[in-house]
Design goal:
The chain has 309 residues and is mainly α. It has 17 helices and no strands. The protein has a single domain, classed as Farnesyl Diphosphate Synthase (Orthogonal Bundle), CATH 1.10.600. 79% of the residues lie in helices and 0% in strands. The longest helix has 28 residues.
């Protein structure tokens, strides 16, 4: 193989990595998992191929929204330490290419979901993307410290979409799964914002620690953690999950609350940063474990939901 061919192959691989980075794969993984959980615990059955299509559509749509977000936020990404290495900022992907990539993925995923599954699921998928792009990214993110509270709804749609892919409807059970992510999102992101507040201040993003201060942010984190405490076990009361899930969710909620209290009590400075980093890391594990437990506790959902019963 010639050096020219090797160089072209290397360049292609690097371009592929850059376009994958536009999809925000770490964020996508949690979105996909919660969507899969909604699909598996929903009543009814779905052919394994159609289940895979539904999950793929959720993943592709999330990636498309992420690419559009990077296109729009490229100016503030350039001044934030955690985002300044993104492909658009570094000039490895042209802004118009990223925008076209995101729009095509978003439209494609919604159309496939509608044609292959049902238009209720497709409508929810479209709503989630539109909400993330226009309500959160364009409207709220740079204007209000409530950006995460309201905009977080976009990330709460996937379990509803998975549920609707199976049932063709929205129910109280799927709305509860939506609420779980909706109320988890503020303490999750505010923990990040506490130890990244300098980044947000430089970028002019009015995250709560920048606008209201550290103390107010800590109190809000505690408040939302208290809301999560009874909310997380609630699927067991509705029959979406059993006692194993309910008991474990309560324990996880108490651990989340303990982390929020540790943040509240931590002195300003390095101690607050350490407590916030621990809570941020645990919050990701917390949500992953809750949805994993939903799947495990509803073992029949894993079989029936894939049409294998």
């Amino acid at each position: 193989m010639s050096d020219t061919t090797l160089d072209r192959a290397t360049e292609t691989q690097e371009q592929l990595r850059d376009f994958v980075a536009l999809l925000k794969p770490r964020v996508m993984s949690l979105v996909v998992f919660s969507g899969l959980a909604g699909l598996l615990v929903a009543p009814g059955s779905l052919h394994p191929f159609l289940a895979a299509v539904a999950v793929l559509c959720i993943a592709v749509a999330a990636g498309g929204a992420g690419a559009i977000n990077m296109w729009y936020d490229r100016d503030i990404d350039a001044v934030m330490s955690r985002t300044r290495a993104r492909p658009i900022v570094q000039g490895r992907v042209a802004p118009e290419e990223a925008l076209a990539f995101g729009v095509v993925l978003s439209l494609f995923s919604v159309m496939v979901m509608g044609l292959a599954l049902n238009w209720v699921a497709a409508g929810l998928l479209a709503l989630a993307n539109l909400f993330y792009v226009f309500v959160y990214t364009v409207w709220l993110k740079r204007r209000t410290p409530q950006n995460i509270v309201i905009g977080g709804a976009a990330g709460a749609f996937p379990p509803m979409i998975g549920w609707a892919a199976v049932t063709g409807s929205v129910s109280i059970e799927s709305l509860l799964l939506f609420a779980l992510i909706f109320f988890w999102t503020p303490p999750h992101f505010w923990a990040l914002a506490l130890y990244r507040s300098g980044d947000y201040a430089r970028a002019g993003v009015p995250m709560l620690p920048v606008v209201a201060g550290e103390g107010a942010t800590k109190r809000q984190i505690l408040l939302y953690s208290l809301v999560l405490l009874p909310l997380a076990p609630a699927p067991a009361l509705l029959g979406t999950a059993g006692i194993v899930y309910g008991a474990t969710a309560l324990v996880l909620g108490l651990l989340f609350l303990a982390g929020a209290l540790a943040v509240l009590r931590a002195p300003s400075g390095a101690d607050t940063d350490r407590a916030a980093k621990r809570l941020f890391a645990f919050s990701i594990l917390y949500l992953f474990l809750l949805f994993a437990l939903l799947i495990v506790d509803r073992g029949e959902g894993l079989i029936g939901g894939l049409g294998l019963a």
